[in-house]
Amino acid sequence: MVKNPWPGYEKGILMKTDIKEIIEKIDDLRPVSQICMKVVKIARDPDSTISDIVEVIQYDPGITANLLRICNSAYFSPRKPIESIKQAVAYLGMEKVANMIIMSGNAKNFCASQEGYDLQEGELWRYSVSSALIAQDIAEKMKYPNLPLIFTSALLKDIGKVILSNYVKDAFQEIWEKVKKLNFSFNEAEKEVIGIDHAELGAMIVERWNFSPDMIKIIRYHHDPDKVDGDISVPIIYLADSICMMIGVGVGSDGLSYRYHNEVMERLGISHHTVQTIIMNYWENMRNVEELISITKGAD
């Protein structure tokens, strides 16, 4: 049963039935598995143990094989081969295991080209993983208590683009006119022309997948941190997104057409020097990041 469209659907060139058609395409995506959901929930619980997470995943041969393959890759380079899920969780830690599982479980949704956003095959996935890694780095520096929420939200924040890409492609000229001549941001132009933007649609997707209200909020407002008071999770994701654009990762047709909120760094207490350090760390680890992406992209 499709829920009512987001407010404002009547604007733009599409009719109400077309918005319903867009929303119905959520079911064409590969949903996050129940095991992924349970793993993320366990990783978020400070009272959980290694045994809790092992119990959930040890009987899934696909996750077991992929996690052991990742553990024994050049990215992590263990001194001795990792041969069991218990060893893998003990070696990586529950948060990294949750990250690996959520990445491998969503790779196929992101790997195709997104022509509406001028992103070639694999570019959206590379950008999503990069954003998640940078967001986690920022969150660690901020001592944010829920790293799995930050990582997963950053990874999935542009899931709406997977569905909306073809609609953006068809309406691109009108969208771009509003960006260039009327000073709309790209997502504002999406909303005006199509009736829904990729952040709204992304929030609807993770709501359909039964993710937490916190993640729904982060994805919905990841381009609009000023609309969320009190919680720094949205500014963290926003800053990670901005850093990705600064270093040229995932910059498609829309990449430089969003509003920059200068106050975010002040709100987070992040200095320009810290941002430079985050960028330096990112580039230093780029080979490992590419290795990690190539591993998870091939996962089933």
In words, what does this structure look like?
This protein is mainly alpha-helical. It has a domain at 17-29 and 111-297: Hypothetical protein af1432, CATH 1.10.3210.10. It is 63% helix and 0% strand. The protein has 17 helices and no strands. The chain is globular and about 60 Å long.
SSE blueprint:
Elements: H1 16-24, H2 34-44, H3 50-57, H4 61-71, H5 85-92, H6 94-110, H7 123-142, H8 147-156, H9 159-170, H10 172-182, H11 186-194, H12 198-208, H13 213-220, H14 233-246, H15 263-268, H16 272-284, H17 286-297
**Overall shape:** globular
CATH topology of the domain at 17-29 and 111-297: Hypothetical protein af1432
β-strand amount: under 5%
CATH architecture of the domain at 17-29 and 111-297: Orthogonal Bundle
Radius of gyration: 19 Å
Could you report the average pLDDT, rounded to the nearest whole number?
Answer: 84
CATH homology group of the domain at 17-29 and 111-297: Hypothetical protein af1432
Largest sheet: none
